[in-house]
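Budget justification aside, the reviewers requested a transparent look at the raw inputs and outputs of the sequence design task funded under Objective 1. We therefore reproduce one unedited record. The lines immediately below are the structure tokens for a 376-residue chain.
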């Protein structure tokens, strides 16, 4: 009998498809081939496929994945263009596989594929509904930055995670877990898909607390390339909490953007006051300096907070980001004044017209910034 597909590499490929390993990637070209090899040797006796979900990496990760897929069609590629995010990449993977079980795993070798089989077994036998590889369970170990991370994670954040999910978890931010695809698909409609807290999101979305089993892991060092996530874990928790409660009314990112804007008003007033009172500047100069000061502050805080998942980091990018942010704000200000004036002329009370102007200006600022300052 000839194999169903001649590009399948070995007889193991004739096993029925059981496990999809979803690898979200952003610039992981050199990590892919060795990782697929490690997965292959870890999964003897199991029918598997690897789903590389790449967000149009600039280093040619998708091309490398296609090259691997040509030699071994257990490797599949989803290249997304114009979309970003670890969570949404994982969701893309859930939706794209026929395998009854799914694992999500980092592509940079920090997660050990040898845990896949024990994790799969625990879920298959019903011992757990979700298997989570934990950096902080008894017997786990981590390298690099993870120690201070652990300090921060214990305490308030962990309590919050417990409240959110109803589940006791030693590592709610783990990026390495396995569950039945059916379970994932049931939860997908309720997920926010923002940021990188996909596991937390899955657990918090389930009506009944899911049965979780922790697997202590040896969290290795990244093999090549650099980390794309920052360590503002508390922030991600708070954003997650907000998202679950009000995210459908006012999107999290817009709420952050608006809060930053409101803080900018305070900064503006402080600068203006200081220049007028202490420096003796004219109002025009004071107002101009305060406007630029506030915009710079807003740019910085938005880059730090609102768009932390797309943060501009190099000096050149920060400079151009700052310049285009100021341009975006000017357009927003124009929309603000135009709309407010028009409403006022039609007889709307001044304060109300001003508020509507501010609201419309903010939406413009937000839309332009998302697209042109922190877009790709
Ligand atoms: N498709 C896609 N899109 N993949 C992404 C994106 C994105 O926007 N951002 C990151 N990735 C991929 C990376 O290429 C890597 O394979 C994986 O997601 C994890 O990214 P890293 O940049 O290596 O994350 P980390 O090592 O800093 O963070 C780890 O610890 C976090 C908890 O502190 C990961 O395990 C996270 O999942 C975990 O939440
Ligand atoms: Mn990593």
């Amino acid at each position: 009998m000839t194999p169903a597909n001649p590009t399948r590499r070995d007889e193991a490929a004739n096993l029925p498809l059981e496990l999809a390993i979803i690898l979200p990637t952003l610039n992981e070209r050199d990590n892919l081939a060795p990782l697929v090899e490690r997965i292959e040797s870890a999964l003897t006796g199991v029918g598997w496929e690897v789903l590389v979900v790449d967000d149009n990496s600039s280093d040619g990760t998708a091309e490398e994945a296609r090259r691997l897929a040509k030699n071994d069609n257990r490797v599949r590629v989803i290249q997304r263009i114009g979309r970003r995010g670890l969570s949404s990449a994982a969701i893309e993977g859930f939706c794209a596989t026929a395998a009854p079980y799914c694992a999500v795993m980092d592509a940079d070798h920090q997660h050990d594929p040898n845990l896949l089989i024990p994790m799969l077994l625990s879920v298959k036998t019903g011992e757990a509904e979700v298997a989570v590889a934990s950096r902080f369970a008894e017997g786990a170990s981590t390298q690099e930055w993870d120690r201070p991370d652990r300090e921060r994670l214990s305490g308030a954040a962990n309590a919050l995670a417990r409240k959110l999910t109803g589940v006791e978890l030693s590592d709610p931010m783990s990026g390495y877990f396995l569950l039945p695809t059916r379970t994932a698909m049931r939860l997908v409609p309720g997920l926010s898909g923002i940021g990188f807290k996909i596991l937390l999101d899955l657990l918090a979305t389930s009506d009944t607390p899911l049965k979780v089993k922790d697997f202590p892991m040896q969290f290795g060092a990244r093999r090549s390339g650099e980390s794309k996530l920052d360590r503002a874990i508390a922030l991600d928790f708070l954003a997650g909490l907000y998202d679950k409660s009000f995210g459908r009314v006012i999107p999290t990112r817009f709420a952050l953007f608006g809060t930053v804007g409101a803080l900018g008003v305070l900064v503006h007033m402080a600068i203006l006051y200081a220049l007028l009172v202490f420096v003796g500047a004219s109002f025009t100069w004071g107002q101009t300096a305060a406007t630029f000061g506030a915009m710079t502050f807003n740019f910085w805080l938005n880059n730090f907070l609102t768009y932390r998942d797309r943060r501009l980091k190099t000096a050149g990018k920060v400079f151009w980001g700052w310049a285009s942010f100021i341009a975006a704000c000017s357009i927003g200000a124009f929309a603000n004044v135009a709309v407010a004036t028009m409403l006022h002329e039609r007889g709307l009370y001044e304060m109300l017209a001003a508020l509507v102007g501010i609201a419309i200006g903010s939406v413009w600022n937000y839309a332009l910034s998302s697209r042109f300052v922190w877009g790709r």
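The mean pLDDT is 87. The longest helix spans residues 315-345. Computational costs for records of this kind are itemized in the attached budget.
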